[in-house]
Amino acid sequence: MTDSSPAPEPDRFAGLPKLLPQVSHAPYSPDVSPTQAAQQYYDIMAQRRSVRFFADTPVPQETIEWIVRTAGTAPSGAHKQPWRFVCVSDPALKCEIRTAAEDEEREFYGRRASRRWLEDLSPLGTDSNKPFIEIAPWIIVVFALARTDDGGQVYYREESVGIACGMLISAIHCAGLVTLTHTPSPMKFLQRVLHRPDHERAFLVLPVGYPAETCTVPELHRKPLEEIMVVNRPAGGAADRAADGGVGGSER
Ligand SMILES: Cc1cc2nc3c(=O)[nH]c(=O)nc-3n(C[C@H](O)[C@H](O)[C@H](O)COP(=O)(O)O)c2cc1C
């Protein structure tokens, strides 16, 4: 007599421990409201300043890598990620960058800058000397890609790289480090000094490190909210005038 009952299924859990550890669950609700969280982030970012006096205290490469990873999370037109972050710690290379940058800066302050521009810069006390390029342990040179590495189109390059730089600056600040948004102009020399390919255009130079013990920053005023934020639209625009019966309003 043959047995027609089906063969027993293999025990798929045979290899697992018989008693799985029990993970207890607790109620979860973030205890910070978006307004509180936004305010806390503001409190952190309001402390950020452009620093021009650096200590030579080393910063591990791993820290810089996390900072650059954060910048790499930025949004970009059609997700083309048109950026490259060249991170320089080699003293000889930093010296070469400083020399070339100061050549450009001497041209700028001595000849190219308009009187108005120099007047606007004078409260900051900047000049053509850029010792921080050598003193800061890292220099991040941000390049914008005119096309992708495989020759493809990029979209909204300036906007995308600008946003990534903002996130880079925030990440540097949140890491407890300082930076300066530096724009030696023109920056073409950086492509040559750093051996970058033709489709990479230098965008910003950011020294990164700790502030010098004697570091000071200009006492600046930031515009209050009322000056920088508009909710909906001001009264009295074209749409309001139309609703009032045309330009100049109706005579009643
Ligand atoms: C696009 C850009 C270019 C800048 N270029 C320079 C520069 O070449 N040298 C410099 O000392 N500061 C430079 N700055 C820094 C500004 O002077 C600084 O952000 C401004 O004075 C406000 O100070 P804060 O950053 O401490 O709030 C630049 C800032 C931006 C956004």
**H/E element order:** HHEHHHEHEHEHH
Query: Would you give the CATH topology of one domain?
Result: NADH Oxidase
| CATH class categorisation of one domain | Alpha Beta
The fourth-level CATH homologous superfamily of one domain is NADH Oxidase
Mean pLDDT: 91
Strand numbers in spatial order across the main sheet = 1-2-4-3
**How many beta strands in the DSSP annotation?**
4
| Largest beta-sheet characterization | 4 strands, antiparallel
The bound ligands are: flavin mononucleotide
What structural class do the secondary elements suggest?
alpha+beta
Number of helices: 9
Strand content: 5-15%
Helix and strand layout, with pairings?
Elements: H1 34-45, H2 61-71, E1 83-88, H3 91-112, H4 115-121, H5 132-135, E2 138-145, H6 157-174, E3 178-179, H7 188-193, E4 200-209, H8 225-228, H9 238-243
Antiparallel strand pairs: 1-2, 2-4, 3-4
Helix pairs in contact: 2-6
The structure holds flavin mononucleotide.
What does this structure look like?
- By secondary structure, this protein is α+β, with helices and mostly antiparallel strands.
- α2 crosses α6.
- Helix content is 36%, strand content 10%.
- The radius of gyration is 28 Å and the shape is extended.
- It has a 4-stranded antiparallel sheet.
- It contains 9 helices and 4 strands.
- Bound molecules: flavin mononucleotide.
- Flavin mononucleotide binds next to loops.
